[in-house]
């Protein structure tokens, strides 16, 4: 009753304001709509402020043991939601999408590390005393990391991209990244960067252990549980997922992950270990390089020359055997719009989870350069989420404008209409049976009377 009274009072207040001052009503309505639309960024700002004020609470090894309660718990909630909402058949189909896996792995561990390494060398060659060399090493470590675990799935869902493919790329990339990332760091920290080479092979074992444990407990098990529940209880799970707005829960879990990362960085004095000029430079650089990587991923995912080379569908009479084989082998590398968005988000993103584990394992928790190494990792993770949050709005419009999405929508509407028509037809059949039974009974009674 109290809630009803409060709601009616608010309605009367809105009505009064709309009548007395329409201009003020429109302004307040616009502000309210914007606050609801950009709640993610507002929540992130609040939690970053909390991380600055109370860094010991959510940091790694802090009051709530952020590496477990958030690093495992929040990520597990995101992938539980994925398991509850994804079709098992479609998931297995995307797991076999070897072309996309190959493209994303090349982007993660070859193209983006090489580009960032080149930029780091160029910046160091300028001999600017303000820019910390150890911060540039942190940039190289960031470049060697695989795609991020949680934010990719959340952002791909928001853009209506192929989140099943994203989930596969996250799993494959992070499992292989546990082996490839330390090797890449060792490879890049030679020559002029040899001062930053930890040269401690035994410490890599800890990285492997941490990564495989996190992938198993926070990705594989929640996903498996979600899939089992979805297949055993499809209708209750669908109602639960819709009523609880589980996709919004995943976005909030992402905010918690960022909170833990910033808490760790503030606790390690990462932002005071380097100059303000270095932080400003790395902030602008991260946004620019993330957008640049996204454009590269987009161009690689939709190479125009394939459309020019393979203009026609293969025909055994019209085309040669070489053309037919080439078409089936190379033409699928031109991906549809939903797959392109998934590849773009996975290829450009870098996870801070593996990076932090690698830095602390190879350089030690008490390293005097730890703060400088963590700055690029933490800032890139946060800025890629913020930038992707803006880009997904445009990606969603681009997907919805495509022929594939319209075709899928038509098929879904057709299937829904058929499902709704079945009960109606059953009612008609049942009604027809009743009429036939009554007519038959009447005919029997008439026969008896005669």
UniProtKB/TrEMBL annotation:
It holds the Pfam family SBF_like. Keywords: Membrane, Transmembrane, Transmembrane helix. The chain crosses the membrane at residues 36-54, 69-88, 100-125, 131-155, 167-191, 211-229, 249-267, 279-301. Residues 420-433 have a biased composition (Acidic residues). One of its GO terms (cellular component) is plasma membrane. Residues 435-450 have a biased composition (Basic and acidic residues). Residues 420-450 are annotated as: Disordered. PANTHER family: SODIUM_BILE ACID COTRANSPORTER 7, SOLUTE CARRIER FAMILY 10 MEMBER 7. This is Uncharacterized protein. It comes from Kuraishia capsulata CBS 1993.
